[in-house]
Every structure is written in C-alpha cells, then in structure tokens.
Amino acid sequence: MANVIKLRKGLDINLKGKAKDTKMRLRPSEEYALMPDDFAGVSPKVVVHESDIIKVGDPLFVNKNYPDVKFASPVSGKVSAVIRGDRRKVLCIKVTADAEQVYVDFGKKDVSSLSGEDVKKSLLDAGLFGYINQLPYAVSTNPETQPKAIFVSALRDMPLAGDFSFELKGNEKAFQTGLTALSKIAKVYLGIGASQAKGDLAKAKDVEVNVFNGPCPAGNVGVQVNHLNPVNKGEVVWTVEPTAVIFFGRLFDEGKVDLTRTVAIAGSEITSPSYVDALVGTPLKSILEGNLVRTDHIRIINGNPLTGRIASPSDYLGAHTSEVCVIPEGDKVHEVLGWALPRIKQFSVNRSYFSWLQYKKEYDLDARIKGGERHMIMSGEYDKVLPMDIYGEYLIKALIAGDIDKQEQLGIYEVSPEDFALAEFVDSSKLPLQDIVRNGLNILRKENA
Fold it and tell me: What would you measure as the largest C-alpha separation in the chain, in angstroms?
C-alpha cells in the first residue's frame, strides 16, 4: 500500500489548451541540436569538430570538470556547426541527421545482475549520466557523489504540463528497468499523484511509492524530498526526471541510446493541443508546424509557463522539456479601466475578480507581468503556495543579501529554482524569484567547492 501524503498549500492554475490524450505524427527533421545550458552546473568541453561523422550515442561534449560525464548525440550524421556566444560560450552543437540512423552498440544488460558501480559505468559510457540532477544546488550531478536516496517524480502538475501516465504507455518495461537500475545505487522514492494511484505507476517494483495528494507544486521533486528525506548540509540526493528513467531503461533493454520523449504541445495559441514523440534537440519549428493559431504576438515557451524558458521557432527541444507551450504575448492588449471592471475572464489569486466563483474555469492568460518590480513585501504570499518546511520569504531575503550562514539555516540545500515558480507568480513585488534562487545556489556552490 502506497504512502499517501496530503498537501494543502499550493495553487492550481487551470490554463486553456491542455494537451488531449492523442498523438500527432512528427516528420523527421534534417537537423538536431544539443544545448549544454539544459544541464545546469555543467562546464561543457566540445569533443567533436564540424564535419565529423557520428553515431547515436557518441558524445558531443563532456563536463570539463568531470570528463567521464559525456553527453550523447540524439542522432547519427554529420556535425554541422558548433554555435558559440559571448566569451566563446558553447550554445549548441548541431548535427545533420542521416536518413538511416546508426547506433553505437552498448550491449544489452540484465540489470538484476548489475552492481551500483556497473550501472554508473553503463550510464557514463552511454552519455546519459548527465541527465541525473542532485540536491543541493539543483545541478547535474557527478560520479563522485554518493546519494543517500534517489527521487523520481512522475506527477506533473504545473500549468499545461504533460501527463506522464500517457507518456508511459508503451514504455512500461523500460521505465521499470530504469527504476531497478537506479535502485542498485541507492533507495529510490517514486512520487505519483492521487489520479495515478490505481495505475501501473503504483505497482512499480524496487522503489518506495508515495502518493502526493494536493495542488501544484506537489509534483515538484524538491517538495517530495522535503517531506520524505530532507537534505542537510553535507548530504546529497539525486533527482531524476521520469523520462530520463525511460532513457536509462532503453539503454539496458536495447543496448542503445534512444532519446525519444513524448512531448505535450499545449496552450491557447495551439490549434490542436496534443502530444508528439520527438527526439531531444528537435527544432521547435518542426514540432509547431501547422499547429499555431497565429504566428505573431505569441510567446513560445520551451517548457511550461511557470518554469520554461522563452523560445523562438529556431530553438530546439530541451533535454528536460516535457511540453512546448504557446500563449498570447499580450503586447497588443489595451484595457480601459481594467482594474475597475469585473474581469470575469481574468485569474486572481486574491479573489479580486468575480471569476473565482466559476469553478474549474479555464483561463486564457497572456505573458504580461501586470506591474513593475518593487521593494519586497513581507506579506506571507510565498508561504501560501510553498508546501515545504521552510520560511520562503526569509530565504529570499537572505539570498538577495548574500548571507550564506542565514541561507543554510533557512534550508537552501533542499530547494531548487522551480520550487519558487508559484511564489514568483503570486508575488506582489514582481521579483524574479527563480533567478534569485539560481544565482544564490551558484554562489553557494562556488563557496563550498
């Protein structure tokens, strides 16, 4: 019987355009790209050159600080470009795909007979180990860390997020293989939602299944770590996105790297919200082609509206991206006496509009901030949407002030930027809380190096 954890704090934002449980066929693209920025904390060193011929699973770059951590190419073909930005920062490595894909053979393995070190070595050799993140610091981990536990959250409850239960169909064996492999390294906690408690996820083996019943952000892995096995100074836990678990399972079951993931195409500016099977690094223009209501005054988001990054059709699907969302930009909206009107189509956390009376209403929100940044207000807003045993507002103040001692006392080691996504949404001060947390974690990591 799975353990049920009831959460009361949080906020569900019901946006228009959630993906329906249908799949659209996606045509193969000519070019794919892998972006080092998708892997937080990694200093990339490119190990290929333009015009090199590579196979699926060959490394495109490695972590400069831990060269054993490689990052595999999603396709075979010719390296067409290494794109760099300011100070020669590596932005992406592009590969022109072969018509017929060629894979590196890593050999099928029976995970039940492997040790934890064998699992690590297999993931390192195949260029998949970098898909494992860690707390503290919310960065891609390295093989020198020894986790006290591994957390996998199969509950996606951010606005317009894809349903992992739908993605799991056809991938059940690979997912179980991936979980069993991870269990060889440390105890694995699998977090699921109340609606998933009667499905295949609740029957997963070699893991401890916990049901999180509550509003968003119950699916955040940081929230689940906080309630099950909090991180103290000097401790490390690994966090693995559920799709990455499928990647790991395919490696052991099939002996090859397959970075195909099911991605939700969602948002009010999408003609037919649905799912597609796409490789990591697929051009967004291929994913969105023929499925946009309009092409101007829209915001394309590589990820969900709260934690994703602003993108354009020329960008590529992120390594950890489970949805591509398109919402109105709002740059051409002009409201007369907007604040004084009933605004039944607008969403309000504080019930300022009559729309709160319409239960389960879908909102067509745009990307406007609706206000400017101002001094921080100690109003208790963060605590209402942050179901963690920390003082969110005081932690943010300590991060802004750069007070590392105070940050440690207030629980900095068990948070990640996404944990403050909802607090950023409801914040009256309009502060970029996720950026503040990320910057603070980066500084703390340097100080403790």
Answer: 69
How far is it, in rounded angstroms, from Cα 401 to Cα 376?
Answer: 12
Strand, helix or coil for residue 264: strand
- 260-289 as b/e, with b when 16 or more CB fall inside 10 Å? bbbbbbbbbbbeebbbbebbbbbbbebbbe
Q: What is the pLDDT of residues 209-229, one digit of tens each?
A: 999 999 999 999 999 999 999
**Summary mean pLDDT of the chain:** 94
Q: How far is CA 358 from CA 25, 27, 198, 216, 425, in A?
A: 36, 40, 30, 19, 21
Residue matched to tokens 């997020």 = 161
How many Cβ atoms are within 10 Å of 178's Cβ, its own excluded? Answer: 29
Residues in the chain, how many?
A: 449
pTM: 0.95
Residue pair 129/69 in contact (Cβ under 8 Å)? The answer is yes
* Residue 340 confidence class, pLDDT cut points 50, 70, 90: low
Between CA 315 and CA 355 the distance in angstroms is: 36
50-90 confidence digits (pLDDT tens): 999 999 999 999 999 999 999 999 999 999 999 999 999 99
CA-CA distance, 345 to 370, in Å (whole number)?
15
Between the alpha carbon of residue 246 and those of residues 176, 181, 430, the distances in Å are: 8, 11, 37
Q: Do 238 and 132 touch, CB atoms closer than 8 A?
A: yes
Give the Cα separation of 346 and 360 in Å (integer). Answer: 13
Amino acid at 18: K
